Automatic annotation (TrEMBL):
This is DNA gyrase inhibitor YacG. Pfam families: YacG. The gene is yacG. Belongs to the DNA gyrase inhibitor YacG family. Its cofactor is Zn(2+). Inhibits all the catalytic activities of DNA gyrase by preventing its interaction with DNA. Acts by binding directly to the C-terminal domain of GyrB, which probably disrupts DNA binding by the gyrase. It comes from Rhodoferax lithotrophicus. Gene3D superfamilies: Erythroid Transcription Factor GATA-1, subunit A.
Length: 74
């Protein structure tokens, strides 16, 4: 390669989390990792309506009962 030649930019394709289609993961894609504004908005709506949540570990009932094996009130 000579100094006049420039390497071709590497285009990284990722799977869009919403539709599963190809998405260009580069600064030129303002919606990355999504493929479009529509997919980004769908994901935001799902997040806002709490469709994405981590399961909560609830303590066993005996931790809340006085005299139980946990650190509940006595």
């Amino acid at each position: 390669m000579t100094s006049a030649e420039t390497p071709e930019p590497v285009v990284k394709l990722v799977r869009c989390p919403t539709c599963g289609g190809d998405s260009i993961y580069a600064p030129s894609n303002l919606f990355r990792p999504f493929c479009s504004e529509r997919c980004k908005q769908i994901d935001l709506g799902a997040w806002a309506s709490e469709q994405f949540s981590m399961p909560a570990d609830t303590p066993p009932d005996d931790d809340l009962v006085p005299g139980g094996s946990g650190t509940g009130l006595i």
